[in-house]
């Protein structure tokens, strides 16, 4: 039975259910018995799928969630006395409850950003006191693609950051919780967007694009992966029935499903952003490039709108709201939301400041 909680909203791309093809893959992986801890056939096939998608020598390891993927990816690049340059909006900085610092021992150095991206000049300005025993030593840069503000780094921007990192002996980590939305937006392959631009280690998420659970830490430099299995076990992130994460990634990466889900989700965000841009009583606050739309809406309308179509107020101070689309967002939800806005504008006109 449909209830209001099953209605399609814009809360997050992990509010959605599981894609039917993923459910089918899970079901098929469930027949019979198989060895555990990644020693089964499905996990072996998934490893090949990763190599096909990202290139020979790619090493992927599964964990339960995105925070763990980020923490373990960073830990593989860092010593506890080092630091990581990241955006002030990055998930690792604002949404992981300090886990990266607690588990890696390294310090996060947030760089200012208006659009979620970090810039080489800002990183360079903080490349100071190297060799000074009193100061955390820069060890890595972490970028999120697409960013937490829905913007997408172009290939050249990533190459520039990677070149800066390499010149200065820093590792480049990419938080790709929604990497597929960025790849679909740029029309490039996952490999072109990561390994080929100079990324060293990637946190690859699928949960926001149709998977049930599970993320991958993907290494493009074998030396960084050397101790990963020990780190993962110690961090309590070694799944025993690994085949169920592997089966999802195999189906999602190996059949092009990731592309279809991401394209659909981006298309719906584009439709939503275009509809909002055409209404002068709301204001888009970020350039829509993937599947997130950031907008200011008169404050007095927000509670009523959220009852019908849930979404988050991203910034409590400015009342900037975030609307996310995902693989099952449809035209009906987008157009219904825009109609609900029009109705409020007609019956309860307000300015953005009210
Ligand atoms: C940019 C980004 N990174 C990582 C994550 C993964 O978080 P979780 O630990 O909830 O899977 C998220 C989820 O919201 C995210 O938005």
What report would you give on this structure?
There is one protein chain. The chain has 354 residues and is of the alpha/beta class. The strands form two sheets. Strands 1-7-6-5-4-2-3 form a seven-stranded mixed beta sheet, with helices on both faces. A four-stranded antiparallel beta sheet has the order 8-9-11-10. Helices cover 42% and strands 16% of the residues. α1 crosses α12 (243-254) and α8 packs across α13 (257-277). The chain is globular, with a radius of gyration of 21 Å. The protein has helices spanning 20-29, 41-54, 66-77, 91-94, 99-104, 120-125, 155-167, 179-186, 190-193, 222-225, 228-234, 243-254, 257-277, 299-308, 331-347; strands at 59-63, 82-87, 107-111, 137-144, 171-176, 201-205, 215-219, 283-284, 292-296, 312-315, 320-324. It is built from 15 helices and eleven strands. It folds into two domains: 4-15 and 258-347, Aspartate Aminotransferase, domain 1 (Alpha-Beta Complex); 20-255, Type I PLP-dependent aspartate aminotransferase-like (Major domain) (Aspartate Aminotransferase, domain 2, 3-Layer(aba) Sandwich). Pyridoxal-5'-phosphate is lined by residues 65-67, 91, 144, 148, 175, 177.
């Amino acid at each position: 039975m449909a209830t209001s909680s099953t209605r399609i909203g814009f809360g997050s791309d992990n509010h959605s259910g599981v894609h039917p093809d993923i459910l089918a893959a899970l079901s098929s992986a469930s027949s019979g018995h198989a060895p555990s801890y990644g020693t089964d056939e499905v996990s072996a096939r998934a490893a090949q799928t990763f190599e096909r998608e990202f290139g020979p020598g790619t090493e992927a390891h599964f964990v339960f969630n995105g925070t763990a993927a980020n923490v373990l990816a960073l830990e593989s690049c860092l010593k506890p006395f080092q630091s990581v340059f990241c955006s002030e909006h990055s998930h690792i900085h604002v949404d992981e409850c300090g886990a990266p610092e607690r588990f890696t021992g390294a310090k996060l150095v947030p760089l200012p950003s208006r659009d979620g991206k970090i810039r080489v000049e800002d990183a360079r300005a903080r490349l100071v006191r190297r060799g000074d025993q009193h100061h955390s030593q820069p060890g890595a840069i972490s970028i999120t693609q697409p960013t937490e503000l829905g913007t997408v780094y172009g290939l050249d921007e990533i190459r520039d950051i990677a070149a800066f990192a390499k010149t200065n002996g820093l590792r480049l980590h990419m938080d790709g919780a929604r990497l597929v939305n960025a790849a679909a937006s740029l029309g490039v392959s996952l490999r072109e967007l990561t390994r080929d631009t100079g990324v060293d280690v990637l946190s690859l998420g699928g949960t926001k694009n149709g998977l049930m659970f599970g993320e991958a830490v993907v290494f493009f430099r074998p030396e960084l992966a050397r101790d990963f299995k020990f780190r993962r076990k110690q961090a309590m992130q070694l799944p025993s029935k690994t085949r169920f994460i592997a089966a999802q990634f195999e189906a999602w990466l190996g059949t092009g499903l990731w592309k279809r889900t991401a394209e659909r989700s981006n298309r719906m965000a584009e439709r939503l952003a275009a509809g909002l841009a055409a209404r002068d009583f709301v204001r888009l606050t970020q350039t829509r490039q993937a599947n997130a739309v950031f907008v200011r809406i008169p404050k007095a309308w927000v509670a009523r709108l959220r009852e019908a179509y849930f979404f988050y107020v991203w910034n409590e101070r400015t009342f900037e709201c975030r609307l996310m689309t995902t693989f099952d967002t449809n035209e009906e939800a987008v157009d219904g939301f825009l109609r609900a806005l029009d109705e409020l504008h007609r019956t309860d006109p307000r300015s953005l400041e009210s």
